[in-house]
Every structure is written in C-alpha cells, then in structure tokens.
Amino acid sequence: MAARPEKTFGARLRTALDERGPLCAGIDPHAALLAQWDLDDDVAGLERFAYTVVEALADRVAALKPQSAFFERYGSRGIAVLERVVDDARSAGAVVIMDAKRGDIGSTVAAYADAYVAPSSPLFSDALTASPYLGFGSLEPLYAMAEKNHAGVFVLGLTSNPEGSQVQGAIGASGRCVAEEIVTAAAARNAGASPMGAIGAVVGGTVETPGFDLAQLNGAFLVPGIGAQGATAADVKRIFGAGTRNVVPSSSREILRGGPSVAGLRDAAARTVEELRGILD
Predict the structure, then answer these.
(1) Cβ pair 82, 124 in contact under 8 A
(2) pTM of whole model > 0.90?
(3) pLDDT tens per residue, range 3-17
(4) pLDDT below 50 — which residues of the chain?
(5) 61/152 Cα distance (integer angstroms)
(6) Which one is catalytic: 65, 101, 148, 237?
(7) What is the CATH topology of the domain spanning 9-280?
(8) Which of 79, 240, 241, 253 has the most Cβ atoms closer than 10 angstroms to its Cβ?
C-alpha cells in the first residue's frame, strides 16, 4: 500500500520535467516489440521487457507510461507484472502515467478511481488517462479521488487517430467543438492551481493546430506520437506555441527500439530529450 504523495501531481510533474527533461517514455510490450527484442510472447517475455525498461529509464526520465492493455492480455500474471512496474518506477523517481483510457459513469468510475488513484491499490499511479466522452462530468468520482490523493487525470482532448475528429471536432450547442468544451471544463477545474492543476489533457503530436486556446488549461498536456508516429519537437512547438512548458511529450516505439540493452534504451531516451529541449526550452 502506497502513501499519498506529499506534493500535488502538478508540483511533482513540474519538478520531474524541470530536472529530468521533457519526456514521457512509453512501456508498450506488444508482440512486435517482444519479437524485435528476441523475446517470446508470454509472461516471461513480458517481464524481461518491462523490467528492462524500468531499469534503464525510471531513474532518469520524467515520466513512464505503461500501456495497460499490453499487460492485461496475459491475465492475472500480466497484471502482477504491471503492479511491479508501477511500484519500481515510482520508487526510482519517475512519474507513472497509467495509460488505460478508462471511462464510464457513476459507481464504475468510482471503482476505476479506487483501482488507479487510491493509495490502497497496488496499481496506484501518479496519473491515469481517461475518456470523457460520456460527458466531462461523468468522470467526477475519478477527478475527486485523484485530487484528494494528489494524483492526476489526463482526459482525451484532441487525439491524432483519424476517427477522433468525428466526435472531438463536432460542434455543440455552444458553438464550440467538443474538444474545446473538454479543455474548457478541465481549465475550470484547474483554476487557481499552482504550478499546474490535476486535470491534464491528451493532445496528439500529429493533430492540426487547434482553433482554440490550449493555454487556458493550467494543466499538463500529454502529447503522444513523438518519433515513430511521425510527430517532431517542431510539431509540439507549432501546436502549443508559448504553452510548451506544460507539454509532456510521449515517445514509445522510437525509444523501445533501442532495446533490448539498457544502454541502448538510455541512449535513445537521451537523444530524444536533447532534441526536445532544443526546441521546447
């Protein structure tokens, strides 16, 4: 059982970014990467892959983002590996962002909150990704639990998958698109927080420049797609402009291809941080 962190999520993330550089490294043990590392697609391969990434990066990158689905597919033994990944990574000083994109209503959301942002859970993470597309307010039990326990929530805002625009770009009764409504609602929740509020937003690094103000969020932006998906540090600057200080660029495959050696992973992460610092600082 973990203890509630003394500092807020926003404060911990700000410190990690400032001290370790602007990078969130993904832990995505999908079959293709296991094969690339000459590992079997089984729990033993999963363990070797995930624990190697933690050993290589948890003491030097700002954040690690395990993708829960790639652990869940092995059943209870995969979840046990994920529990250790979370604990070991947090113990080494990395901010852990659980990428599970949970979303529902009522008591189900409350149960997800208990699973991911309650210190009594073995999966207690610094933050959780979540889908607000049953309505921003549908995640209220998750927001409340996260804030109470100094954890964070990254709601999906503008994702880079082609299908996302069908919902995120739709214009509501207010005349604003759904993505803007989500960011505006999160900004209201974060009002007055320093250095950042608990509610962040996921904005893909390959999206078009938004037609609304992202800086209003007063929270962190988790930005996947850096590297293998084609997004660059220049894209981050284009999308966020003066608001890049609160950006958490995320790279998975580009860094994970540096394995299976610890040194290779560290070199890949260091190159990415250097590139990002050169444009974002």
Answers:
(1) no
(2) yes
(3) 899 999 999 999 999
(4) none
(5) 18
(6) 101
(7) TIM Barrel (3.20.20)
(8) 240
